[in-house]
Amino acid sequence: MPFIVTEACIKCKYTDCVEVCPVDCFHEGPNMLVIDPDECIDCTLCEPECPVEAIMSEDDVPENLQEFIALNAELAKEWPVINEMKDAPGDADEWKDKTGKIKLLER
């Protein structure tokens, strides 16, 4: 099962995960990252790197975040690949513990 980036990434967009990905399956949007499920090799390297625990196996995505499975697949087709670590947004720490951020997703 591929790994999925969930709501916790929105407005945080830490890129620690990108640095360890051996297959460049991360894609960058305006205010979050997604994983291309067709490229992900389930290596598990990215999951522990995420400081906001936004990455999880598709099998472990809770019911309230299930929409992120389809969202990762959809947005990975639209957004460019990111394969180098970048600085997080200046206010990322202010957003890391907030929930209900789906309405803030920028496409």
Written overview of the protein:
The protein has 107 residues and is of the alpha+beta class. It has one domain: Alpha-Beta Plaits (2-Layer Sandwich), CATH 3.30.70.20. The protein has three helices and four strands; from the N terminus they run E-H-E-E-E-H-H. The strands form two sheets. It has a two-stranded antiparallel sheet. Strands 2-3 form a two-stranded antiparallel ribbon. A hairpin with a 4-residue loop joins strand 2 and strand 3 (33-35). The longest helix is centred in the last third of the chain and has 12 residues, at 67-78. It is globular and about 30 Å long. The mean pLDDT is 97.
By CATH reckoning, the class would read Alpha Beta
Number of strands: 4
Instruction: Report the principal-axis shape.
Output: globular
Major sheet attributes: 2 strands, antiparallel
Question: How would you briefly describe this protein structure?
Answer:
The protein has 107 residues and is α+β, with helices and mostly antiparallel strands. Helices cover 20% and strands 11% of the residues.
Structural topology:
Layout: E1 3-5, H1 16-20, E2 26-28, E3 33-35, E4 55-57, H2 67-78, H3 92-95
Antiparallel strand pairs: 1-4, 2-3
